[in-house]
Design brief:
The protein has 289 residues and is of the alpha/beta class. It has 14 helices and five strands.
Length: 289
């Protein structure tokens, strides 16, 4: 998968940024809904960073003009605009339920098309094979990442893959991962901005000999460096309420990939499971009215 331009530039040039320029980058990461639309003067006022520092920062990152710099922010942070702001922008132009349906489907269709272009089949195949080879797959989804994580675990178990959901108790997630062992896989859906906590969790997993797959809408350089694989799967589109359509679609792609690569043995397992389900339905007595 081709890493988005903003993340690429940060990865290459962030070490050359001054302290104030680093502060600007950190402020943007916390306030993308403001930075993505602010004029240069407005960004200076909001971030408490001077205009010369902003100009120096985007030039250090290889942008020629402020408009190019802002376009890079908008492209990368498309899935991170906060829900209230995104909803307000979207609903401002929608006056009927029919219009709402059309707008939602249009946004999700465009987002799915972007996912189709960004997914790297080679890297996706490696993650699928790691799922099949791992003694245990530990899935972690903080915040809204819980939903695709929970779905993935339930369906993987149906495929005969040993999988567990970590992080149901956020304060004790490391204790929940205490059984992690050499060769296990840690797969996380990251849609919160608490990079510090996730970095600690990833470090622990690596120390236990596990591989780490990061599915994220943020592509934090620190987290990406710690992961065996990282895939950019955003939640939505700019100026529209964040949705889970893409993360859920990605979870489904992973599951179908597991079935595809699982071969005849997995196919027979699924067939046997279907037969058991049909048998249970036939043996449950019908209630009489």
């Amino acid at each position: 998968m081709e890493t988005p331009d903003w993340a690429n530039r940060l990865s290459r040039h962030q070490v050359a940024l001054s302290r104030k320029e680093q502060e600007l980058v950190e402020w943007i990461g916390v306030n993308p809904h403001l930075a993505a639309f602010a004029r240069l003067n407005e960004l200076a006022e909001l971030s408490l960073v001077s205009k010369p520092t902003i100009i120096s920062c985007y030039r250090q990152l290889g942008y020629v003009a402020y408009q190019e710099f802002q376009a890079g922010l908008q492209g990368f942070y498309a899935g991170q605009i906060d829900s209230y702001h995104a909803s307000a922008v979207a609903l401002k132009e929608i006056v009927s339920v029919n219009g709402l349906i059309e707008a939602c489907l249009s946004v999700e269709t465009a987002a799915l098309e972007l996912l189709r272009k960004n997914l790297d089949p080679g890297q996706l195949t490696q993650i699928i094979m790691a799922i099949l080879a791992a003694p245990m797959v530990h899935v972690y989804g903080d915040g809204t990442g819980f939903y695709p994580g929970h779905y993935l675990v339930q369906r993987l178990r149906g495929c005969g893959v040993r999988a567990c959901l970590a992080g149901t108790d956020r304060e004790h997630v490391l204790e929940e991962l205490g059984t992690m062992a050499q060769g296990d896989l840690f797969l996380t859906f990251n849609y919160t901005q608490d990079a510090y906590t996730l970095a600690r969790i990833m470090d622990f997993c690596v120390s236990q000999g596990a591989k780490v797959a990061l599915v994220t809408g943020f592509l934090d350089p620190l987290l990406c460096q710690k992961a065996s694989w990282h895939l950019f799967v955003p939640r939505g589109q700019l100026n529209f309420k964040n949705s889970m359509a893409l993360p859920m679609a990605f979870a489904q792609i992973l599951l179908l990939g597991v079935e595809l690569r699982g071969g005849e043995a997995l196919g027979n397992k699924l067939k046997h499971l279907d037969m058991l389900r049909k048998g249970m339905k036939q043996t449950i007595p019908m209630e009489r009215s």
